[in-house]
Automatic annotation (TrEMBL):
GO MF: zinc ion binding
Swiss-Prot/TrEMBL keywords: Metal-binding, Repeat, Zinc, Zinc-finger
Keyword Repeat: yes
Occurrences of domain C2H2-type (ranges): 1-30, 58-86, 113-141, 148-176, 177-195
PROSITE patterns tied to this protein: ZINC_FINGER_C2H2_1, ZINC_FINGER_C2H2_2
Pfam family, one: zf-C2H2
Native organism: Nematostella vectensis
Protein name per Swiss-Prot or TrEMBL: C2H2-type domain-containing protein
InterPro entries with a match to the protein in the record: Znf_C2H2_sf, Znf_C2H2_type
Length: 195
C-alpha cells in the first residue's frame, strides 16, 4: 500500500500513486476542454469527451477555430480578436453559409441546427439533413427510409413491422378482421372500419 502525502489516499501500487499525483494533485498537468471548461487528468479522456460532443458548427472567421456553442464564439472573438460584428458559418449541403450573429451577453443558448432555405430549426443535425433532403431536394421521406424490401414484389418499407404486415396481408392473404354482418374480411382494421 502506498499513501498520497497530500490527501492521504491509499493506493495499491506505486504506479497508481504516481498516476494519482499526476492527475489529481498537479493542476498544471490537467487537460482542459476549451468549450466547456472541464478538466481531465489524461489526454485520452479529454479526447473522448471532445469526440462525444456534438459537431462544432460555430466558426471564427478570423482564425477558423470551431466552437460548439455560439456564446463560446462570442467570448472568443471579444477576448482574442476584439471584433464587434461576428459571423456564424456552417456547412449546408457542401457550401458554406454565413449569417451575422449578435453577442449573447453570457446567456446559455439552446443548440440548434437551422435550415438556411426556410429558417426551420432542428435539435439534431440528422433531423436537419433529413429535412433538407425531403423538403428542399424534393426527395420523399419514404424513399430515404426504405430499408426493408419485400422479396415477393420488391415493395419497400421503412419499418420492419410494416413489411411483415404487408407479407401477411398481400402475399399470404391473411385477413384477420372480419365483418360481423357479411362474409368479408380484411387485412387491416382501418379497411374493416371503412367497409
Amino acid at each position: 500500500m502506498c499513501q498520497c502525502l497530500e490527501c492521504g489516499k491509499e493506493l495499491l501500487t506505486s504506479y497508481n500513486l504516481k498516476r494519482h499525483v499526476k492527475t489529481v494533485q498537479k493542476q498544471e498537468n490537467l487537460y482542459k476542454c476549451e468549450y466547456y471548461h472541464k478538466h481531465f487528468g489524461q489526454k485520452r479522456n479529454l479526447k473522448r469527451h471532445v469526440d462525444h460532443l456534438s459537431i462544432s458548427f460555430y466558426l471564427c472567421e478570423e482564425c477558423e477555430k470551431e466552437f460548439p456553442r455560439k456564446d463560446n464564439l462570442v467570448r472568443h472573438v471579444k477576448t482574442v480578436h476584439r471584433k464587434k460584428k461576428l459571423l456564424l458559418s456552417y456547412d449546408h449541403a457542401g457550401s458554406k453559409k454565413q449569417v451575422p450573429i449578435a453577442p449573447t451577453h453570457g446567456k446559455r443558448l439552446r443548440k440548434v441546427f437551422q435550415c438556411v432555405e426556410c429558417g426551420k430549426e432542428f435539435p439534431r443535425k440528422d433531423s436537419l439533413v433529413r429535412h433538407v433532403k425531403t423538403v428542399h431536394r424534393k426527395e420523399k421521406l419514404s424513399t430515404l427510409l426504405q430499408r426493408y424490401k419485400c422479396k415477393e414484389c420488391r415493395q419497400c418499407f421503412h419499418r420492419y413491422d410494416y413489411l411483415q404486415r404487408h407479407i401477411k396481408v398481400v402475399h399470404r392473404r391473411d385477413r384477420p378482421f372480419s365483418c360481423e354482418h357479411c362474409d368479408k374480411s380484411y387485412g387491416h382494421m382501418t379497411d374493416l372500419r371503412k367497409h
